Amino acid sequence: MSFRLAALAGLLLACGASAPESHRSGAYTLPDARAELAPSSDPAAPTTADGYVERALRSSPAARAALARWEAAHARVRTQRRWPRPTLGYAYLARPLHTRAGPLRQRVSFAWPLPRFAELSARTRSAEAEVLAASHRFAATALTVRAEVASAYWQLWAARERGRILALQGELLQTAAEVLRARVATGGATLASLQQVELRRTRLLDAAEASRTHEGHFRARLALVVELDTVSVGDLPPEILRPAEDVAALQAAAARRPEVAQELARAIAFREEAAASAARRRPTASFQLEWSEVGPSVVPGAQNDGEDALALGVMVALPLDVGAERAAGEAAEAEAEAAEHSGAQAERSARLEVLAALADVTNSGRRARLHETSLEPQAAAAYESATGRLATEGDVTLTLWALRELLEVRLAHVDALAEHAIAWARLERAVGRPVAATEARGEPATPEPAGPGTSVGAPADGSVR
User: How many CA atoms lie within 13 A of 364 on its CB side?
Assistant: First the structure.
């Protein structure tokens, strides 16, 4: 166990000593954390997920609390290095004590307890380990804030895009209804067909209204998370990414994520507290110096007439509370063991979270690529063919079926993109640092012809931008 703790101590000290690009790597130094939470002079609301993360960190009560605890732990290190205070005493003898040399009238004393150097070293190392634990606690809080903001941001983006798609579908049904009215007037279509289209359009308008309600909810949620009155999201969709690292590397990184490192640092702190308790079970010495002022002797010619007295001495404090200190050491050892087990559980949970998040990233990315490169172009082509038959033959059933497929495919594409971005944020939260990625978006499909089937703000390949 001692060898493992020594290895963990070296790992934690290495993590605490290196902090280039700390806000990107997941490891922070105290100046980095202060700068990260410094108030911004830019009043404009951001339009990207990363911009909202920076704003959320500045306004997050949890992040500020973690920084304050870090500041307190950092300041507490110096308090563990102080030596015992010396004492200075003065006594005036109201009734002088007569000696052969003369009356003893006043006394000045000085005493300085010698420190237990082993205890000072152990307490200092314990405080330094608490600083490391506080730094990892802040890093964990920052990762949590990042994941929360990413979830709120991309849910708002998806709700807005769903509203746009539903509104577009309503416009397409409006166009189909106008075509059918013309054919009903000439006897080329039945009134029942027109009523089916109108019913479908009414249901789409209701779904669009519900989508606007959800968009308002997600907008309020994002505004609350970042503490802004108004928020907006950009038009660019999330990138479809693939981790550049294998599962073993991601799980190895998760085994060192801030929550795990925090518990291991706490274990080191408790072990040092146990060592300090062991040092307090040893006797301590105090150096003493005493000067006594002696007046002139009443006996003429007395030896040492009027000479002041100077005494040097050493006192030893006996540790009569050895049992209490031993109990304190046992309690610290138990706390250290509990922190180690908590770290092991956090490591196991991190590995499981990586597996779950990686599966979500893979599935959502696959679905997004499938919709972008295959399903959406096929659904758009089917709708164009059905629209041609509607104009020539008045086949409203095929048109409604094709339009429903196009709607479902486009909504599923938006949902897959949002789920992919949120799953990626969960993956980085599970790993404990940003994950190296490669672009996984598929090759562009055949461009979709411009016309009623093209969505608002969508590129020619049918993906929602």
Answer: 24
Strands (E), 251-409: 284-294, 309-317
**Phi, psi dihedral angles at 171 (to 5 degrees):** -65, -40
Q: What is the CA radius of gyration of the chain?
A: 38
- State the Cα–Cα distance between residues 337 and 342, nearest whole angstrom: 9
- Candidates 167, 447, 451; CA nearest to 463 is 447
Report pLDDT digits (tens) over 94-122. 888 777 777 888 999 999 998 889 999 99
What is the per-residue pLDDT for 299? Answer: 67
Which residues are bridge partners to 288 per DSSP?
Answer: 111, 313
Are 293 and 310 in contact by the 8 Å Cβ rule? The answer is no
- The two tokens of residue 154 are 């991309």
Alpha carbons 71 and 399: distance in angstroms, whole number? 66
What DSSP string runs through 282-325? Answer: S-EEEEEEEEEEE---SSTT-TTTTPPEEEEEEEEE--TTHHHH
The pair phi, psi for residue 73, each rounded to 5°, is -65, -35
CB contact set of 184 (below 8 Å; sequence gap of 6+):
190, 191, 193, 194
Which pLDDT score, from 0 to 100, does residue 45 have?
73
Q: Which CATH architecture has domain 137-280+331-439?
A: Up-down Bundle (1.20)
- Run of H or E including 94: strand 87-98
Q: Please report, to the nearest 10 degrees, the dihedral formed by the alpha carbons of residues 120, 123, 127, 132 taken in order.
A: 110
DSSP-assigned letters across all residues of 97-164: EE-SS-EEEEEEEEEEEPP-HHHHHHHHHHHHHHHHHHHHHHHHHHHHHHHHHHHHHHHHHHHHHHHH
pLDDT at residue 7, rounded to an integer: 41
Distance, in Å, from the CA atom of 406 to the CA atom of 408, rounded to the nearest integer, reads 6
Distinct helix (H) and strand (E) counts, the chain: 12, 6
Which carries the bigger pLDDT value, residue 75 or residue 193? 75
CA–CA separation, 318 vs 221, rounded Å? 63
- Residue keyed to tokens 């001692």: 2
pLDDT over threshold 60, residue 2? no
Residue 85: strand, helix, or coil = coil
Residue pair 125/279 in contact (Cβ under 8 Å)? The answer is no
Distances from the Cα of 463 to the Cα of 3, 276, 336, 400, 451, angstroms: 55, 64, 53, 21, 15
Give the domain ranges of the chain.
Answer: 137-280+331-439
- Nearest-angstrom CA–CA distance, 412 and 406: 10
